[in-house]
Amino acid sequence: MKDFREKTAVITGAASGIGAALARRAGAEGMHVVLADVSVPEAEAVARSMTDVETLVVPCDVSSEASVQTLADASWERFGAVDLLCNNAGIVPGGRHRLVWEYTSGDWQWSLGVNFYGVIHGLRAFVPRMIDEGRPAHVLNTASVAGFVSGSGSACYGAAKHAMVRVSEALYAGLEQVGAPIGVTLLCPGLVRTQIYEAERLRPQELVDGEQPRESADLDAIRDELYRNALGPDEAADMAFEAIAEDRFYAFTTAGFDHAIEQRARDILSRANPQFESIVEMSRKDSVGAAQ
């Protein structure tokens, strides 16, 4: 998909971070933009900032199949077609670093509901219609380097992203199998300056099933240090659009995690016990690389 002008982009999680940056980049490319988010006032603010761009803001909770179906209906009703679907919404359950057995049921339901089922609902609501239209189109799924590395940290988030990687690869293979002119890009950000770690304010009350402890002051300081030099969301969006234009599947924003990805693959192929690098150390490498 090389010609974006006058086409329509639908972006979930468009109120902030990478989603807002994708919306701005789509608008700059001359696209009509549908901004979907649970935070409607923030999404509306992003839309207002996009001058000379035809926009539509739709309240959407991607963990709800009905809500995503409503988004699809509203997008086709307003613009008559969808050319670029960006399944981008994502959250990280807050609180201190937890071991896998320490996450609550609410943590798992919230993470899988948004980070994984949000993509499933998007594919089910949009892709069949896009196939029926028979025109060139593209799907961008925002995963994470967390979908390719492993270890004790961020299991609740990482598990959802690993699952999204598998689904995205199946989407790519399936569209090729049926001969649909629809490309697929898997955006895999490393450290990006977003509000994803502040998502607790958006957690549904019914999924709060335990106290959400704060990080220690030391961990807060480490996070601040890492994100000081992290990639900006607009840069990540530029990388995503470059991959879309090149019809490229994997779009990593950094090479800082390559060693960990390679080590994991080597351990699997050699049937060795896994060796996991600290997520903090991997993030430090990413942060240093972004600063150079």
Note down, in words, how this protein is organized.
The protein has 292 residues and is α/β, with parallel strands linked by helices. 48% of the residues lie in helices and 12% in strands. It has nine helices and seven strands, in the order E-H-E-H-E-H-E-H-E-H-E-H-H-E-H-H. A seven-stranded parallel beta sheet has the order 3-2-1-4-5-6-7, sandwiched between helices. Helix 5 (155-178) links the parallel strand 5 (137-142) and strand 6. It is globular. It starts with 7 loop residues before the first strand and ends with a helix. Mean pLDDT is 89; it is low at 287-292.
Features:
alpha/beta, 9 helices, 7-stranded parallel sheet, 292 residues, disordered C terminus
| Total count of strands | 7
Uncertain residue ranges: 287-292
Q: Characterize the main sheet.
A: 7 strands, parallel
Shape: globular
- The DSSP helix count reads 9
- Strand arrangement in the largest pleated sheet: 3-2-1-4-5-6-7
* Helix percent band: 40-55%
The radius of gyration computed from the alpha-carbon positions, rounded to a whole number of angstroms, is 19 Å
The helix-strand sequence is EHEHEHEHEHEHHEHH
Mean pLDDT over all positions: 89
Beta-strand content estimate? 5-15%
Q: Which structural class should the secondary elements be placed in? A: alpha/beta
Distance from first to last alpha carbon: 31 Å
